Amino acid sequence: MGSIFLSHNSADKPFVRKLASDINKNGHYAWVDMAEIKVGDSLIGKIEEGIMKCDYLGVVLSTNSIKSEWVTREVRVALSQEICGRKVKVLPILLERVQLPLFLMDKRYADFTEEDYYEKSLFLILARLSEGSSSTGEKQKIETKVEKDNEVKGMKETTIKNLYVIEKNSGIVAGDNVHIHTL
Fold it and tell me: Torsion angle of alpha carbons 45, 77, 70, 42, nearest 10°?
């Protein structure tokens, strides 16, 4: 399964705890400082280790985090890996409507600015985590299809089903459903 380092400001911990819990419940691994750094550990060493071992760095963007020097440093380390590795590493997670830093402006973000967006944005993160994993490298997306497309009271509801092979040799298959409501 995929892994994500959640870079955030301490003022955003309630949201980060919920997001990490939901990511972990869906079979992925969320690295959060409060759970990983023990008394006496080197902050810089543990954070660097966490960023290096995770597939992605999810940067929680809020009025607090965009002013945080720690968050900026974490993102810069991950962006360096992204440039060197030529693959996506940094996933912007918008908690509040803020001016995005220049180095994140061209990236699509998961939008958690409204409670109604939570499930859809969580799905987007889970889908990205499912694309590649440093732990097994065996999970492969095998199908994406629209299950239904309904028009109800001026809103369009689309259900998308994603199927994944979890373990090639055992034939275990898992799926994710998401309901998207649009005007």
Answer: 0
